[in-house]
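Appendix B, example 12.
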Amino acid sequence: RKSVPNLLEGYAKWKEVSRPRNKTYLLFHTYWKEGWNIHKMAEEYGIDKAEILTTHVCKKCGNYEIKKYDGEDQDCISCGSEKTQVTPNVGCGVREEQLNEIYNLMDVYCHPFTSGGQEIPIQEAKLTELITLVTSYSCGEESCEEGAHSLPLEWSEYREHQTEFKKASTCPNSIAENIDKVYHMTSEERSAKGKKARQWVVDNFSLEAIGKFFEDFIDNTEVKEYNFEEEETIERKRNNPDAFVPHIESNSDWVLTLYRDILATENHTNDEGYKTWMTSLENKVPRKQIEDYFRKVAREHNQKYFPVKIEDFLDSQ
């Protein structure tokens, strides 16, 4: 969801127009094998690769180093181990106090993203009193409200394939303009704005603030009795492995028909299973293969929850 190409383009536009006197750097705290070819895109936008820094973490000693990226499995200068440094990922990252230090290396934090429910790094950056540039969409709208002291980034809408979910493409020109605003602030202005941004997070996202919100919600929620046995029975509807499936041109309608008629399930286009089958069809997996799988699942379901009993074949008299 993080719009790396937009950030690179915005940074390049800022340097081209403003021509900063001092040496500047882009610091990416990210896993470089996640998908973006950052160096290739930097070259497209005319950015010197020497200006791009990234975090490296040692899998052995846990220390980190900020330097240019020359591939994974680098040697660690802290413990002397060979090929143990990697860029941060879900399997190996920095500790909380180290992350705090990394944020404090920055002069400004830029967070262009397509969408999100929380985007915790925005709050983390504010807690270190950084000025944050944030896409004003989805949860970013809250981070750009009055009192949050973010600099909002403009964006244009696009739709996600299949789900048609609204996404944001952050405007590189807006990134450039807001980087320039921060660049020309005095240290006193940046400090004052950063302190206010931190206080906004403390007031709205601290344990006391969020905990109180949930406490009040739970305390004021009406007590309701649930019949879990009935719900379980509803979930275990008999499937129809021999259901007739007509010819349907639309792949989407056809997949939804399989769910409805064979598995007795009202599925929808946001479901992960639906997306998986649509991708399979795009990759030329035969419809018969998919249909046979649905019928197999339906038979196994019936065998498990509706086993055949000898009594079913005996006359009641």
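The longest helix spans residues 187-205. The chain is about 45% helix and 15% strand.
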